[in-house]
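Q: What structure does this chain adopt?
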Amino acid sequence: MFVCVVCSIDMNKQILVGIFIGVLITGSVVYAYRMGASQDTESRSPVVGEESESTPVSDTEVATPTTGASAVPTPSVARGSSLDLSGRNLTKVPEDTFSRTELTILNLSNNNLSGALPGEIRHLTKLRVLDLSNNNFTGVPAEIGQLGQLETLNLSGNPISGLPQELGNLSHLQVLDVRGTQYSAQDLEGIKKGLPKTVTIYQ
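A:
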Protein backbone atom coordinates (compact mmCIF):
# COMPACT_ATOMS: atom_id res chain seq x y z
CA MET A 1 0.00 0.00 0.00
CA PHE A 2 2.73 2.43 0.95
CA VAL A 3 4.66 1.58 -2.18
CA CYS A 4 1.64 2.35 -4.37
CA VAL A 5 1.17 5.72 -2.71
CA VAL A 6 4.83 6.59 -3.26
CA CYS A 7 4.57 5.52 -6.89
CA SER A 8 1.47 7.61 -7.35
CA ILE A 9 3.20 10.66 -5.88
CA ASP A 10 6.24 10.18 -8.11
CA MET A 11 4.02 9.85 -11.16
CA ASN A 12 2.14 13.02 -10.28
CA LYS A 13 5.44 14.85 -9.92
CA GLN A 14 6.55 13.64 -13.32
CA ILE A 15 3.27 14.80 -14.85
CA LEU A 16 3.59 18.23 -13.23
CA VAL A 17 7.19 18.50 -14.34
CA GLY A 18 6.18 17.53 -17.86
CA ILE A 19 3.41 20.10 -17.90
CA PHE A 20 5.75 22.78 -16.58
CA ILE A 21 8.36 21.97 -19.23
CA GLY A 22 5.68 22.05 -21.92
CA VAL A 23 4.50 25.47 -20.77
CA LEU A 24 8.07 26.76 -20.85
CA ILE A 25 8.64 25.43 -24.37
CA THR A 26 5.33 26.85 -25.60
CA GLY A 27 6.09 30.26 -24.09
CA SER A 28 9.53 30.31 -25.68
CA VAL A 29 8.08 29.47 -29.09
CA VAL A 30 5.42 32.18 -28.81
CA TYR A 31 7.97 34.73 -27.65
CA ALA A 32 10.35 33.86 -30.49
CA TYR A 33 7.50 34.13 -33.01
CA ARG A 34 6.44 37.52 -31.70
CA MET A 35 10.01 38.85 -31.80
CA GLY A 36 10.47 37.61 -35.35
CA ALA A 37 7.20 39.22 -36.44
CA SER A 38 8.18 42.50 -34.78
CA GLN A 39 11.56 42.59 -36.53
CA ASP A 40 9.91 41.78 -39.86
CA THR A 41 7.42 44.64 -39.38
CA GLU A 42 10.24 47.06 -38.56
CA SER A 43 12.15 46.03 -41.65
CA ARG A 44 9.08 46.71 -43.79
CA SER A 45 8.22 50.08 -42.22
CA PRO A 46 9.24 53.03 -44.41
CA VAL A 47 11.82 55.46 -43.11
CA VAL A 48 10.34 58.71 -41.82
CA GLY A 49 10.05 61.10 -44.73
CA GLU A 50 10.48 58.32 -47.29
CA GLU A 51 7.55 57.56 -49.55
CA SER A 52 6.50 53.94 -49.87
CA GLU A 53 6.68 52.39 -53.30
CA SER A 54 3.04 51.40 -53.10
CA THR A 55 1.87 54.89 -52.16
CA PRO A 56 -0.35 56.21 -54.98
CA VAL A 57 0.52 59.57 -56.49
CA SER A 58 -2.17 62.21 -56.25
CA ASP A 59 -3.78 63.29 -59.51
CA THR A 60 -2.95 66.89 -58.61
CA GLU A 61 0.80 66.33 -58.32
CA VAL A 62 3.00 67.52 -61.18
CA ALA A 63 6.09 65.54 -62.09
CA THR A 64 9.34 67.42 -61.63
CA PRO A 65 11.67 67.25 -64.65
CA THR A 66 14.87 65.29 -64.18
CA THR A 67 17.89 67.42 -63.38
CA GLY A 68 19.77 68.22 -66.54
CA ALA A 69 16.78 67.66 -68.83
CA SER A 70 16.52 70.17 -71.63
CA ALA A 71 13.85 72.77 -71.11
CA VAL A 72 10.89 72.65 -73.47
CA PRO A 73 10.48 76.05 -75.16
CA THR A 74 7.35 77.92 -74.16
CA PRO A 75 5.12 78.74 -77.13
CA SER A 76 4.22 82.38 -77.79
CA VAL A 77 1.04 83.34 -75.99
CA ALA A 78 -1.08 86.38 -76.70
CA ARG A 79 -2.95 87.69 -73.69
CA GLY A 80 -5.81 90.00 -74.38
CA SER A 81 -4.66 92.50 -76.99
CA SER A 82 -0.91 92.08 -76.49
CA LEU A 83 1.52 89.72 -78.19
CA ASP A 84 4.98 89.13 -76.74
CA LEU A 85 7.38 87.45 -79.17
CA SER A 86 10.53 88.81 -77.55
CA GLY A 87 13.70 86.76 -77.07
CA ARG A 88 12.69 83.82 -79.28
CA ASN A 89 15.55 83.94 -81.80
CA LEU A 90 13.12 84.75 -84.59
CA THR A 91 14.59 85.48 -88.01
CA LYS A 92 11.23 86.31 -89.51
CA VAL A 93 8.05 87.81 -88.11
CA PRO A 94 5.39 85.05 -88.00
CA GLU A 95 2.99 85.57 -90.91
CA ASP A 96 -0.17 85.46 -88.81
CA THR A 97 1.07 88.34 -86.65
CA PHE A 98 -0.20 90.95 -89.09
CA SER A 99 -3.68 89.43 -89.16
CA ARG A 100 -4.08 90.07 -85.43
CA THR A 101 -5.84 93.35 -85.99
CA GLU A 102 -7.02 93.53 -82.37
CA LEU A 103 -3.45 93.96 -81.07
CA THR A 104 -2.59 97.08 -79.12
CA ILE A 105 0.87 95.91 -77.97
CA LEU A 106 3.41 94.04 -80.10
CA ASN A 107 6.83 93.14 -78.70
CA LEU A 108 9.39 91.78 -81.19
CA SER A 109 12.48 92.81 -79.25
CA ASN A 110 15.64 90.75 -78.72
CA ASN A 111 15.37 88.53 -81.77
CA ASN A 112 17.42 88.12 -84.97
CA LEU A 113 15.02 89.93 -87.28
CA SER A 114 16.77 91.62 -90.20
CA GLY A 115 16.03 93.69 -93.29
CA ALA A 116 13.04 96.01 -93.12
CA LEU A 117 9.96 95.49 -91.00
CA PRO A 118 7.25 94.14 -93.36
CA GLY A 119 4.83 96.74 -94.72
CA GLU A 120 1.96 94.55 -93.50
CA ILE A 121 2.44 96.28 -90.15
CA ARG A 122 -0.11 98.78 -91.51
CA HIS A 123 -2.91 96.31 -90.75
CA LEU A 124 -2.38 96.67 -87.00
CA THR A 125 -4.12 100.02 -86.80
CA LYS A 126 -4.96 99.63 -83.09
CA LEU A 127 -1.33 99.36 -82.00
CA ARG A 128 -0.31 101.64 -79.17
CA VAL A 129 3.07 100.08 -78.38
CA LEU A 130 5.53 98.66 -80.93
CA ASP A 131 8.87 97.38 -79.61
CA LEU A 132 11.42 96.42 -82.29
CA SER A 133 14.52 96.96 -80.15
CA ASN A 134 17.69 94.86 -80.25
CA ASN A 135 17.30 93.19 -83.63
CA ASN A 136 19.09 93.58 -86.97
CA PHE A 137 16.52 95.72 -88.73
CA THR A 138 18.05 98.01 -91.34
CA GLY A 139 14.91 99.80 -92.40
CA VAL A 140 11.48 101.00 -91.28
CA PRO A 141 8.64 100.91 -93.85
CA ALA A 142 6.69 104.03 -94.75
CA GLU A 143 3.51 102.11 -93.84
CA ILE A 144 4.35 102.54 -90.17
CA GLY A 145 3.01 106.06 -90.54
CA GLN A 146 -0.49 104.58 -90.87
CA LEU A 147 -0.52 103.45 -87.23
CA GLY A 148 -2.51 106.45 -86.09
CA GLN A 149 -2.98 105.18 -82.49
CA LEU A 150 0.71 104.43 -81.87
CA GLU A 151 2.03 105.98 -78.65
CA THR A 152 5.38 104.23 -78.15
CA LEU A 153 7.84 103.21 -80.88
CA ASN A 154 11.12 101.58 -79.83
CA LEU A 155 13.66 101.21 -82.63
CA SER A 156 16.76 101.16 -80.42
CA GLY A 157 19.61 98.71 -80.94
CA ASN A 158 19.11 98.23 -84.69
CA PRO A 159 21.46 99.20 -87.58
CA ILE A 160 18.76 101.40 -89.11
CA SER A 161 20.31 103.90 -91.50
CA GLY A 162 17.25 105.91 -92.44
CA LEU A 163 13.91 106.91 -90.95
CA PRO A 164 10.83 107.44 -93.15
CA GLN A 165 9.27 110.88 -93.02
CA GLU A 166 5.91 109.14 -92.55
CA LEU A 167 6.84 108.77 -88.88
CA GLY A 168 5.75 112.38 -88.62
CA ASN A 169 2.16 111.22 -89.20
CA LEU A 170 2.05 109.53 -85.80
CA SER A 171 -0.07 112.19 -84.14
CA HIS A 172 -0.47 110.24 -80.88
CA LEU A 173 3.19 109.33 -80.44
CA GLN A 174 4.52 109.98 -76.93
CA VAL A 175 7.84 108.08 -76.97
CA LEU A 176 10.28 107.49 -79.83
CA ASP A 177 13.49 105.62 -79.04
CA VAL A 178 16.21 105.63 -81.72
CA ARG A 179 19.24 105.05 -79.50
CA GLY A 180 21.87 102.77 -80.98
CA THR A 181 20.67 103.28 -84.55
CA GLN A 182 22.37 104.97 -87.50
CA TYR A 183 19.60 107.45 -88.19
CA SER A 184 20.15 110.65 -90.08
CA ALA A 185 19.90 113.76 -87.93
CA GLN A 186 18.37 115.54 -90.91
CA ASP A 187 15.66 112.89 -91.23
CA LEU A 188 14.86 113.12 -87.54
CA GLU A 189 14.53 116.89 -87.66
CA GLY A 190 12.01 116.63 -90.48
CA ILE A 191 10.04 113.98 -88.59
CA LYS A 192 9.89 116.06 -85.41
CA LYS A 193 7.92 118.76 -87.20
CA GLY A 194 4.92 116.47 -87.60
CA LEU A 195 5.06 114.88 -84.15
CA PRO A 196 3.24 116.19 -81.06
CA LYS A 197 5.16 118.79 -79.09
CA THR A 198 4.97 116.57 -76.02
CA VAL A 199 6.77 113.61 -77.60
CA THR A 200 9.91 112.31 -75.86
CA ILE A 201 12.69 111.24 -78.23
CA TYR A 202 15.59 109.14 -76.97
CA GLN A 203 18.60 109.49 -79.29
